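protien #1 (seq + structre)
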Amino acid sequence: MTALTATAPDHSGGGRRRLAAPTVAMLPRVVDSLSFLYLDVVRIHQDDTGVCAEITTEQRGRETVYLPTAALACVLLGPGTSITAPALATFARHGTTVLITGMGGVRCYAATVPGTLTTTWLEHQARAWADDTRRLAVATAMYEHRFGPGQTQPDTNLQQLRGLEGQRVKALYQLLARQHRIGRFRRTYDPAAWDTQDPVNLALSAANTCLYGIVHAAIIALGCSPALGFVHSGNQQSFVYDIADLYKAELTIPLAFSLHSATQPEAEARRSFRDNLRLYRLMPRIIDDVQQLLAPGHKAPSSDEVEPDEQLVDLWDPITGPLPGGTNHAPDPTP
């Protein structure tokens, strides 16, 4: 969180505290920012202490809650939310991704991108995505990641992997339905008839959206593009869906079935998912999995591990490779 440092007493004898500008050393790395926060029908603004969410009700009047901005991987802002520019600037400075979502966190309409990102992993992603052979290798690795080691044959093609994945998810639905004694289950997602869906589908949609928010925050923190997917395509969230699918069978699907009798399945799914994030250690896993998928064996520092002063812009050269920016490259004058 933003640190407060005491100043020397003024001449009147009163003590004052000033808001200290956070440094990179003071802020947690993205792998340590494990949580998310969903807000709706609130006003978010910055005051002398920090970023706070303000709500006014007839019963209890005005209430203010301060947000631990540096400890949040992402904030999901639902309908009825307003936010000031200084508050957004604080989120960006702390590396917190802000997502604009629909009711209950379902659907992501827009997201902020902090401006202190390097392009190391974006370049790895773009090269792999633009090369059909490498893109196929990454897509295959994503499917194999879901099955676990040794569960597929080396010569299994992408079409066969898609079929095996469909069978695996269907079998998981059947197994969990039997365990919770809820009869036959069918996955549905219909925004037009949202309130008519059963608790498991409502909880699964809400939990998946929270998962998408965490994955989106991790992808942005690495400087990658959420749009350049390897399995999914044609959507600004394609890469988010690719990575989120690695964890659904382990995290969101069992959680949704456990809430089959919940009276408020969406809210309970978000709350349970958030409470278990530290147990899951999800953010470090996402960072490591993305890096290993895009560049197996390569381990470069992520953008949140590099001091902003060191993030210099290089110049591209087809012969020598990157050249240092901030340098005058004019030839020395002839003596």
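ok now protien #2
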Amino acid sequence: MLIHALGPLRITADGAQVHVGGRRTKIVLAVLTLEANWVVNIDRLVDAVWGNSPPASARTQIRICVSGMRRVFAAAGEPDLIETHPSGYCLRLSRSDLDATVFEDQVDRARSLAGTGRLAEAVLELRGALSLWTGPALAGLAGPAVESGARRLEETRLRAIEERIRLEMELGRHRDLIGELAELAAAHPYREHLHAQLMLALYRSHRTAESLAVYRSIRSTLVEELGIEPGPELSELEQAILLGLQTVEVC
């Protein structure tokens, strides 16, 4: 059985979709999944589902959700995944039971490969890890607890993308990356590192004017919308490009 959090929350068993329940149950499962192998206080689950306005029956309804999940897991051959503790519940998962930890392990393998100079293999491993994503993390579920966890997962995805792009540029594939980087920079207008990578890919492709235009664009965005100047990575990269240095890098 596999719990999928890298996209809409779902469960599969032997490749088949398993119906987990409605919105309330999915929120409880999402919070337990985000805190897998840790006890989650029942009050936290109540807050995740209802916020500051829980009904009098909130704790009972949480227990009903958990009972329903237990039946689903038992039917999928995993009857003991949820443990009951005096203060709440714990979802016991191995690393292969959750796509988010499968993703983390593949990213770690990629870093090990890169560390030994096997860059092409590392890129393939990162591409495989990123292929596990089917959409925004926990898409369709709302609430501070779920959204906070989803943002953490999304950050790991962006870091893996940036790492793959860095390795591909080391392999001389900068021209092939320009389109993807332009889309990523547009989708993440405040993420300076992605803009630096786009500037570098353009500069190495002998498109210096476009590279500097990327700097001017993000600087304008940061100054006008946030009241800050670009950080050292972007400003130093711009200066290196203006000086026409032959060796220009980003971390």
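The two ends are 38 Å apart (CA to CA).
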